[in-house]
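Dear colleagues,

As part of the handover before I leave the project, I'm documenting each prediction I ran so the next person doesn't have to rerun anything. This entry is a single chain, and its sequence is reproduced below.
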Amino acid sequence: MDEQFYFVDLPGYGFSKMSKEEQVKVGNFIEEYLQKSNAISLIIFLIDIRHEPTANDKLMYHYIVKCNKPCIIIANKADKIAITKVEQQVNQLQNILNPMKDYVFLPFSSERKVYTEQVWKEIEKYI
């Protein structure tokens, strides 16, 4: 291609105001895109570090596993909890979603820009 990489932001599901019918269509689109696109080098799946994974988080995680593509899970909003709790919380999220430890889970804070170096090192392995 053009020797560049692109971030593609797929439609979210958390606070959307879509009808149930629209949510099904978007879900089908995402599943098809993840399964059929040959241009995906890495899936970056964002979850909230402060909460246990929602039903939608678990559903999306299963889509990702099903498509069998490289993935890292970013536990965002790490600045919203005590720094002493970050590692414990990331481990708890990994144990809930990914007990086999197939994917890398990393903390991140877009607001305070903490943990960014570790995340970029992981992303760079795929570009």
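The two ends are 13 Å apart (CA to CA). The first helix runs from residue 20 to 36.

All the best with the project,
I.
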